[in-house]
Amino acid sequence: MSHPCLSCGACCAFFRIAFHWSETDPLLGGTVPAELTEKLDPHRVVMRGTQSKTPRCVALVGEIGVAAHCGIHPIKPSVCREVEPSWEFGRHSLQCDKGRIAHGLLPLTPTDWPTPVIPVPVLPLVPELPLDEPAIAVLASLDLPPATGGTGIPV
After folding, report:
1. Where along the chain do its domains lie?
2. Which residue, 4, 25, 28, 93, is the most exposed by fewest CB within 10 angstroms?
């Protein structure tokens, strides 16, 4: 299953993408290409194409709802990074849903995401320390292999 955003792109063609101008200034650590933006006010710029009645970010590549992606994904604005796809992290995203619905797409659901299989390590049970015994005595009573410091040779 591929990432649902790679067949969507709706948020990039629904919202005005406004952010602080410093994100376009390489001397200040900015990475967004300034030529892809236009001035919004003294402190903010917007991605070109996102201020119209039918917004579409200049960096959006492809067809919405079919195959779409951000052409500057590794260096996209912070505001774009903050939009979470619905249910990717186990929670609903109103922004994602609004964009999808505006383009005739159904909102994402938890079933649109693969369930990761994460192996859970099985740890040995360690007895609780009695309040009346020093911890060192309890540790000494455990049948533990000698410490090797990762070398295989007891230290």
Report:
1. 4-112
2. 28
